[in-house]
Amino acid sequence: MNAIITGGTKGIGRAIADKLASHGWQLYICSRSKEDLAATKTTLEGLHADTIVHTAVVDVRDKVAVQTFGNLCLEQLGGQIDVLINNAGVFYPGSIYTEEDGALESMIETNLYSAYHLTRKLVPAMINKKKGLIINMASIASFMAYPNGGSYSISKFALRGFSKVLREELKEHGIKVTTVMPGATWSHSWAGMKDQLPESRLMKAEDIADTIWSVINLSDAAVVEEVVLRPQLGDL
Ligand SMILES: NC(=O)c1ccc[n+]([C@@H]2O[C@H](COP(=O)([O-])OP(=O)(O)OC[C@H]3O[C@@H](n4cnc5c(N)ncnc54)[C@H](OP(=O)(O)O)[C@@H]3O)[C@@H](O)[C@H]2O)c1
Question: Is 152 an annotated catalytic residue?
């Protein structure tokens, strides 16, 4: 089995990569850091004898770079794509009226357009195969507004919309589409809060990865359309 994971070097994407690699999957991961990708590849390939990890330096804000990455994946995986995980994303806190100029554009490019362009590149091969799963990493910010959510929330509402449209379009082709909407989860983005909050206040990235593993392992007859995960004590 194989999977493509954008932003597979840190946080939630990395936890998903760890999970799949430990089961011997072939992975194609991307991020902006060559060093992080090389270190991740070494660790992941050590988790299971069958695991092969391909890496590519990609800035997912760049449409042409995303399309080139899509072509690389198709070539390397021989057009056989089992799971695509549109995970790469950034969160710049702020209000619509105070956040920096360009925050909206930057988060729409990273959190929405990347998923749109990569999916468009890969879906024809999945349709040919009449099987596959696309997972879009949305957020609780995809269905509710909260202080300091600003343009992040706009981008994640849009990503959920993209995911819902895709679900309707692809169901007759045998391709599943799942929108994952986590609340606060320990990751690189939350590193600055480590000394202010107890470890148990946020979810672990592994909790999201375990949920995705369950989603992947359902029979062909069932799809998880949407999943909401929250810290046990609720939102921060
Ligand atoms: N953590 C949470 O509380 C939480 C909650 C709900 C949803 N989410 C969503 O879950 C996803 C992962 O978040 P995370 O918290 O795990 O983030 P993270 O720890 O900051 O990791 C983000 C990953 O995406 C990559 N990335 C970021 N910008 C990129 C770009 N322009 N091009 C290519 N790769 C890029 C990063 O690598 P480089 O920086 O090296 O490129 C890294 O591998 C995001 O979509 C986020 O919105 C997170």
Answer: yes
Q: Of 3.40.50.150, 3.30.420.40, 2.30.42.10, 3.40.50.720, which CATH number belongs to 2-229?
A: 3.40.50.720
3-state helix, strand, coil in the chain (%, to 5): 50, 15, 35
User: By C-alpha distance, which of 14, 20, 3, 16 is closest to 208?
Assistant: 16
- Ligand 1 atom nearest 110 alpha carbon: 31
What tokens does 173 get?
């082709």
pLDDT digits (tens, 9 = 90+) for 133-179: 999 999 999 999 999 999 999 999 999 999 999 999 999 999 999 99
Residue 45, SS3 per DSSP: helix
Compute the distance between CA of residue 197 and CA of residue 205 in angstroms, rounded to an integer: 16
What is the structure's pLDDT at 191?
87
Catalytic residue among 28, 92, 113, 152: 152
Nearest residue (CA) to ligand 1, atom 36:
7
Cβ atoms of 176 and 222 within 8 Å: the answer is no
